[in-house]
Amino acid sequence: MSSLPPTATPAAARTPAPAAVAPAFSPLYQQIKGLILRSLQEGEWKPGESIPSEMDLAGRFRVSQGTVRKAIDELAAENLVIRRQGKGTFVATHAEHQVQYRFLKLLPDQGDAREEGPAQRTVLECRRARASADVARALALRTGDTVILARRILAFAGVPTILEELWLPGQAFKGLSAEQMASYQGPTYAMFELEFGVRMVRADEKIRAVLPDAAQAQSLGVSETTPLLSVERLAYTYNDAPMELRRGLYRTDTHYYFNALN
Amino acid sequence: MSSLPPTATPAAARTPAPAAVAPAFSPLYQQIKGLILRSLQEGEWKPGESIPSEMDLAGRFRVSQGTVRKAIDELAAENLVIRRQGKGTFVATHAEHQVQYRFLKLLPDQGDAREEGPAQRTVLECRRARASADVARALALRTGDTVILARRILAFAGVPTILEELWLPGQAFKGLSAEQMASYQGPTYAMFELEFGVRMVRADEKIRAVLPDAAQAQSLGVSETTPLLSVERLAYTYNDAPMELRRGLYRTDTHYYFNALN
DNA sequence: GAGTGGTCTAGACCACGCG
DNA sequence: GCGTGGTCTAGACCACTCA
After folding, report:
1. What are the chain A neighbours of B225 within 8 Å (beta carbons)?
2. Cβ A160 vs Cβ A222: under 8 Å
3. What region holds the HTH gntR-type domain (chains A, B) (predicted)?
4. Is A44 helix (H, G, I), strand (E, B) or coil?
5. Reduced to 3 states, what is the DSSP secondary structure of residue B240?
6. Residue with CA nearest C1' of nucleotide C2
7. Which domain holds residue B52?
8. pLDDT value at position A99?
9. CATH number at residue A47
10. D19 C1' – B19 CA distance, angstroms?
11. How many domains does chain B have?
């Protein structure tokens, strides 16, 4: 931070106004992180593109490279950005070959997920609907607001394994069609980035064991006494804004849900 | 350690001998991290105790404070130590009040885990046994090696919710008794630290939906048609050595398994 | 060889906890 | 007021990528 007229904010923000009760000291690198985050949100750099070099950003924000570095370190730890030595720092995307299907934790008992390949998708329906009370609450909408409801089956090696319903805010996903859902190659979340500019950043899952009803059992080709994993996922974009509610039923006779605890 | 003859390695290790094929460049802070890790393993500092200050360690290893800092940062990220500003850096322990039951992801539908309080434990049995092929493989033992098998029920608010079996290497857990399992207040993993010097550092879980057999159903007070979550956990100490295989059946009518995806 | 991220250092100062 | 971790800087050099 140095000698020229302060156009960037940090210089001023250095001494935050002492809030009544919570002093809320915020280190410089956190403020820088916030600024970069804002640019990410506003789409100044698109998924897959590189962001400016650390030196450039340091110049832009009038801080040292080390401070920018620490800000980017955190963004990288949150998977918002990917660092590649010698090349640059890139906006993370679900279209990456490496961490594809980042949020899908279902693995095959035999072999590994790579040889199994991507799931075959069958879209059962995709239509506009009104948000029920619970869907509205999850997506931070009002009951009755327009949502998109999609239902589909994912099969691995020809075996139907996942039956899921997706609820999306009608606002952000206006025009989403069954064709779009079915035809896009690669992760659905990559399609959301490309077609709707919506980037899923993190998600929570609530998991239960359940028995399917008759229709669900038929869709998955199992009996009604076959226990299934019920996975309710709430996915968020930037700013912790919920953007997708997904309810899945997973068969766990050929696959298992994997979780690494630290 | 400071102005004396260099017994610490890093100064010498600074220029690693170039291995035949893989140069395997290892940054200084990684080497420091390894040294600290070794001290943790060897019990130079016990769980809950503080480790030397960054300055002290910097002196001991003859590197700058920043380098020690980065090493400790990684250890903290892996939950092996806990930093407390103004106080020091402490060896992590499962006995901490804050992150108690770190590996238990089952949450109540109503209210939160704190008001629910710790589970009531009923130890069904705890005895020596011979490792079956699959248990031996999981624990990196040989089939027929001695293991400890414990079975217990955990209840929340008086409702039996978890039925689980624990397999432990006989070597490390010699003498573990049902009384010990039942009487210790707090996480079982904290008892393992205290009584056996075994610290669980991370774990993997494989989750499936299953139906209980008659005995299991009775233990949990549910019918045989009640789907349950089967949670197979493999817990590791330092060095990725597996030290516990745990197979649990979770009721998910009053609780759910929570997972945060990043 | 130029440019990018990655490491390392040395020193200054800040926030926090505690006696 | 002291010691601890936390932040910030400035500068040097290293490893990697690509033209």
Report:
1. 211, 225
2. no
3. 26-94
4. coil
5. helix
6. A86
7. 28-91
8. 66
9. 1.10.10.10
10. 30
11. 2
